[in-house]
Amino acid sequence: MATNGEPTQANLVLYAGDTFEGDVSLVDSARAAVDLTGASGTIVVTDSDGDTAMSDSITVTDAAGGEFTWEIAAATTDAVSPGRYSYLVQLTFADGSKKTVLRGTLDVRAGV
């Protein structure tokens, strides 16, 4: 996923009761890995009113390689009503700067 100013948009589907996880490799406009040394971040899922439906911290898995993951437990997603939500991933870099790198819609469907 490239970071050229605007966050990358990815629309996702989740079945309530499933683990919501993502693996991301962040690159700049030259396709070089973005250094995530000392970075932290969050993923936040909001409903149509802007209220937080679920959120979690991201985990940097390869700082030099620009890689991070997130995982929201099945028990958490099971409590979310089916519908269309928005989500974003915002990183805070070691120098204190913040950047939203990923956003989109999350369609939550009824689980089995």
Give a description of the structure:
- The chain has 112 residues and is mainly beta.
- It is elongated and about 40 Å long.
- The protein has one helix spanning 74-78; strands at 8-9, 12-15, 20-25, 40-46, 52-57, 59-62, 67-72, 83-92, 98-109.
- It has a single domain (8-109), classed as Immunoglobulin-like, CATH 2.60.40.10.
- The model has no long low-confidence stretch (mean pLDDT 93).
- It is built from 1 helix and 9 strands.
- The chain starts with 7 loop residues before the first strand and ends with a strand.
- β6 (59-62) and β7 form a beta hairpin.
- The strands form 2 sheets. Strands 1, 2, 4, 5, 8 and 9 form a 6-stranded mixed β-sheet that branches.
Topology:
Layout: E1 8-9, E2 12-15, E3 20-25, E4 40-46, E5 52-57, E6 59-62, E7 67-72, H1 74-78, E8 83-92, E9 98-109
- The N- and C-terminal alpha carbons lie at a distance of 32 Å
Please give the number of β-strands: 9
In the predicted model, the low-confidence regions spanning at least 5 consecutive residues are none
In total, how many domains does the architecture comprise? 1
Major sheet characteristics? 6 strands, mixed
Indicate the proportion of strand residues: over 45%
The percent of residues in helical segments reads under 10%
The helix count comes to 1
Name of the level-1 CATH class: Mainly Beta
The CATH architecture is Sandwich
Helix-strand sequence = EEEEEEEHEE
What structural category arises from helix and sheet content? mainly beta
- What do we call the CATH homologous superfamily? Immunoglobulins
Using only C-alpha atoms, the radius of gyration works out to 14 Å
Mean pLDDT: 93
Write down the CATH topology. Answer: Immunoglobulin-like
Instruction: Specify the overall morphology.
Output: elongated
